[in-house]
Write a structure and sequence with these properties.
single chain; alpha/beta; Rossmann fold; 8 strands
């Protein structure tokens, strides 16, 4: 697995699919998710349609740089935010989404790619939006998938989904794999598959079990605030994809993103939750390829 330095002190593990001469598509993973969340078969399907596909581990996940010198107690952080003690909350978290966006650009630069189509899912969608807002000249198109704008009142989780997201996960492999079934709460109602969730959890655990990064990534999301003003002025061609079964980030998050970005296209998928079921890959791949021209 190639690992390259993208900035001082930060290196990213990544994997590429397809012909480097084809248009580049950067896939940005979600909260506490490794590059495995973008299934290799899905990456190959995009590559087979003439795209050079790059998937990578965000900082604090997988085989990329870990910020162990900045431990974040998730409960203390959330308590500080809820109490309105932003200075205390800000002091706990060493980076923001803007830093993670710069990681993405650093990876593209290391690979010799000046401009790319950027596709982000969930927190990855927030990072992808931030990439388009901060360096639009390097983003050919933006695809924001199952994500939101950072504004309150949009994309809210149901209490059940939030409980699963924040529930402590077992540290042993068997328990970790079994606990993955809880994520059916936000999966596609039609295609959600506990076996698929367990399989991904097992691969993720074996590759790089690292729960400590989640607190820092959560802090980065919360403290980066709303992107609404920037999205209103965004001139990057944008496609928003959201599943109507999503209970982790309500479809209002996708609708709001498309509403704000001038000329944005909105694709709502009735049988998708906060996941990408294999059965929907043809539609997802087709939409991404069509939007990348």
């Amino acid at each position: 697995m190639p690992i390259v330095e993208v900035s001082s002190g930060v290196s990213l593990a990544h994997e590429c699919f397809g012909d480097p001469g084809d248009p580049a598509v950067l896939l940005v993973s979600g909260f506490a998710s490794q590059l495995l969340s973008w299934h290799e078969d899905l990456c190959r399907a995009l590559a087979d349609r003439g795209r050079y596909v790059i998937r990578f581990d965000n900082r604090d996940t997988g085989l990329s740089t870990k910020f162990d010198d900045h431990p974040v107690d998730r409960d203390r952080f959330i308590a500080a935010v809820r109490a309105g003690d932003l200075p205390a909350a800000e002091a706990m978290v060493p980076y923001r989404l803007g830093d993670m966006a710069e990681d993405g650009f650093g990876l593209l630069t290391a690979l010799g790619i000046e401009r790319a189509h950027v596709v982000g899912a969930s927190m990855g969608g927030m990072i992808a939006q931030t990439m388009a807002l901060t360096r639009a000249e390097r983003v050919l198109t933006l695809k924001s998938m199952m994500s939101t704008t950072g504004e309150r009142g949009y994309g809210e989780s149901t209490p059940e989904a939030q409980a699963v997201l924040f529930a402590p996960k077992p540290v042993d492999r068997a328990g970790f794999v079994a606990a993955a079934e809880r994520e059916l709460v936000w999966a596609s109602r039609r295609y959600g598959d506990a076996a698929v969730l367990r399989e991904l959890a097992g691969r993720s655990y074996d590759r790089a079990y690292y729960p400590a990064g989640g607190g820092r990534q959560l802090g980065a999301m919360i403290l980066s605030g709303s992107r609404a003003d920037g999205l209103r002025a965004l001139k990057v061609p944008t496609l928003v994809i959201h599943g109507l079964d999503d209970t982790l980030i309500d479809p209002s998050g996708g609708r709001r993103t498309a509403e704000l970005v001038p000329g944005a296209e909105l694709l709502l998928l009735p049988d998708m939750g906060h996941d990408r079921p294999r059965e929907l890959w043809p539609e997802i791949v087709g939409a991404v390829v069509a939007h990348t021209g």
